[in-house]
Amino acid sequence: MNTENATSSSEFFAERERLWRATYGLRMVAPHLSAHNGMTLRQRKAVICAAAVVILGLALAPRVTGIICISAATAVYTAVIAVRLLLIVNSIGHDPAPVEATAFLIPDDALPFASVLVPAYKEPEILRELLGALSELDYPADRLELLLVLEGDDDETIATAREILADDTQGLSRCLRIIEVPPAEPRTKPKALNYAVQLAQGDLITIYDAEDRPHPLQLRAAAYALATGGPDLACVQAQLNYFNPEQNLLTKWFTLEYTMWFTQFLPGLVKLGAPIPLGGTSNHFRREAIMAVGGWDPFNVTEDADLGLRFHRMGYHIGVIESVTLEEANSDAINWIKQRSRWYKGYLQTWLVNLRHPIRTTRALGLRGFVLMNLFVGGTPLLALLNPIFWFLCLLWFTLQPQFVRDLFPAGVLYPAMACWVVGNFLYVYAFVLTAAKRDDVRLTKAAFAIPGYYVLMSFAAYKAFVQLIFAPTYWEKTQHGLDSATKAVIDLRDQVVTTP
């Protein structure tokens, strides 16, 4: 065999080994923490037994069984709402240093080598904007590599990326590499990240999505936070928000939700020392922490939330930094449901994985962490699944007033349920209005008052997620980006018309 053939063969086997590790590494090291096998046999038996008990109860004692179910659902609602209010209260006073205050506290020659991983799939139309945003990052070029992680059979995106690099007007070619992930199932972002991180050279590993526009100083601020946060600080999460909140009502709702999530819920969880379900982008990791916990789970479609909980299980903690990455808010309802159903499916996967061994999980997370994991990670999609049932019962009562609805709500159940419904909805709307007020945007405030309409979309997404969890648990539903371009074109055209004599 000549030298060229030997090198080619060596590269082929190295590629296959990386792919195997990317796909099965976590499953081999910690199978009880991988979503690969879905629900365990014990969990299936528990679900079947619970369903059989409810069905039998409805057949033999429908009124009593119905009351018990309504009471349990009311208790879940109350607990989830209470936890979210607790997080909002705990976030008050959370005032981290702005990114500009910490970005230059580490000299350039002492900064860690940073690897920025940007997975993209079938998104050639947004590559130029992506690379333009990455070119704005203020970080020493000799300590930075940008890895564009593409599927090996995504010919159009690969060709576009190569074309942009060939016509490199932004000086990216000196630090940007294209990583082609060999085509293989599952086709998920975490598998691509697992593959690329094996080729990354950095001690600081950063994840951005293809539509992201990070603050130019974010990498520096993250490096400082990790350097001063102690060895058990595995990751810092930057805030996410949107550059197109005014596009339509849906983008306004989405902006309000993200603002609350990243400025109130996550800081509240950090203050409580609770497990943190990470956002899917603008995560800045210590490389050794990523490797210590087995990387991302390629069979979990919200690899970020799963990884956040796994860090907590293994003794690490997560911080947040005052730096914003702007993304594109999904402006199309159908596309939004696709994206949200994947998130809900992944939350359900993560919840079920952590409930495989409840006692072991409680020991790993602590009792408070275990309770918060159930109410925050499990409660988020669960409430979206329960909402239509109660909306239907409410509609029936106000239109037909059937006797069976009256029977389901004796006084001892009716008054707590009514209190939960009225007070809970008022507080939720009020919290969104306060969030809009913080942004000082009247149009967002108006959208906040209409936020119950957002709940309807959430429920559609939750039921879609539940069906996919059963029939297609690892299917990664692609979110289309670049939908804000039509609005930009309209605005540009309007501006031209206005300025035309």
Comma- or semicolon-separated keywords:
alpha/beta; disordered C terminus; 501 residues; Spore Coat Polysaccharide Biosynthesis Protein SpsA, Chain A
Structural class: alpha/beta
Q: Could you give me the name of the CATH homologous superfamily?
A: Spore Coat Polysaccharide Biosynthesis Protein SpsA, Chain A
Spans of at least 5 consecutive residues with low confidence: 486-501
**Rounded mean pLDDT score:** 89
What's the CATH C level?
A: Alpha Beta
The total domain count is: 1
Please tell me what the overall shape is: globular
Strand order of the largest sheet: 3-2-1-4-7-6-8-5
N-to-C order of helices and strands: HHHHEHEHEHEEHEHEHHEHHHHHHH
Pfam families: Glyco_trans_2_3
Keywords: Glycosyltransferase, Membrane, Transferase, Transmembrane, Transmembrane helix
InterPro entries: Glyco_trans_2-like, Nucleotide-diphossugar_trans
GO molecular function, one term: glycosyltransferase activity
